[in-house]
Amino acid sequence: MADVFLGLGANEGDRESNIKMAIDLLKHSAGISIISISSIYETTALGGSKQPDFLNCVVRVNTKHKPHVLLKAVKSIEETLGRQPNTHMQPRPIDIDILLYDDIDIHSEDLRIPHSRLAQRRFVLEPLLEIEPDAIDPVSSTPLANYMDELKSQEVTKFKDKSEVWNAR
Prior knowledge:
- By secondary structure, the protein is an alpha+beta fold.
- The chain is built from four helices and eight strands, in the order E-H-E-E-E-H-E-E-E-H-E-H.
- It has helices at residues 15-27, 67-80, 122-131, 162-165, and strands spanning 2-10, 32-37, 40-43, 54-63, 95-101, 106-107, 112-113, 157-160.
- Strands 1, 2, 3, 4, 5 and 8 form a six-stranded antiparallel sheet that branches. A two-stranded antiparallel sheet has the order 6-7.
- It is globular and about 35 Å long.
């Protein structure tokens, strides 16, 4: 079983519900077991385009799926929840990214692990470090917490503590 961190984000429709539905679909996916879930954080969209604010969280899973099979599974969940193809940098009901997969480094046309912008996005690092404070960048062997100082200017607000959201489910 591989240890994997998935980043979930939503900025279209009922954002919180979209994230919860994505997690429920992950829970019921064959070959995927949820280990832990972060709090939900809110942030403005990056990239300069005017979009609604995002809600984000990180989910730690164990999976028997190889990376490209897992990618196919998360893309299927996105599609089920209404994500349209080619909506990168546009509003979307759900976005699921593979952030880390064990300690592997993959650079293929359709998949990059660790996620290419992992160390540049506080809205990903903060929830990831909440559930795994000792996470390491597998490429540089740098503790991911070391990148947080550089990201202080990116505003991230805790929207709901994980105990308010996940323990009640």
